Amino acid sequence: YRQADTNRDGHVDLGEFARQFDIERRNPFLPRLVQLFDLSGDGQMSVFEYVVCLSQFGARRGRGDHIYFAWRLFDVDDDGSLTKDEFVRVLK
């Protein structure tokens, strides 16, 4: 967490998250990825939120967990289904 929080403000913002995981800033799913773990909705991750994020990528996660995570990433409006627009966005 300390490596990711480069400005030492106690939170990991979108830019810091992108740098830590080598994700291009223009990746259209970057904001959504941060949003999935930003439980407080403040646009950045606390230590707790960051640990929850890292736990999603652990070796002990099953294939079903990864599929569910991917579904949540693509289901932008969190309604439990993929609309045509959401699916087209994934394909682009």
TrEMBL record:
UniProt KW Membrane keyword: no
Organism of derivation: Micromonas commoda (strain RCC299 / NOUM17 / CCMP2709) (Picoplanktonic green alga)
Annotated GO MF terms: calcium ion binding
Tree of life domain: Eukaryota
Keyword field: Calcium, Metal-binding, Repeat
Name of the protein this chain belongs to: EF-hand domain-containing protein
InterPro entries according to UniProt: EF-hand-dom_pair, EF_Hand_1_Ca_BS, EF_hand_dom
Residue spans crossing the bilayer: none
Listed PROSITE patterns: EF_HAND_1, EF_HAND_2
Residue ranges occupied by any EF-hand domain in the UniProt entry: 25-60, 62-92
Record's keyword annotation contains Calcium: yes
Annotated SUPFAM superfamilies: EF-hand (SSF47473)
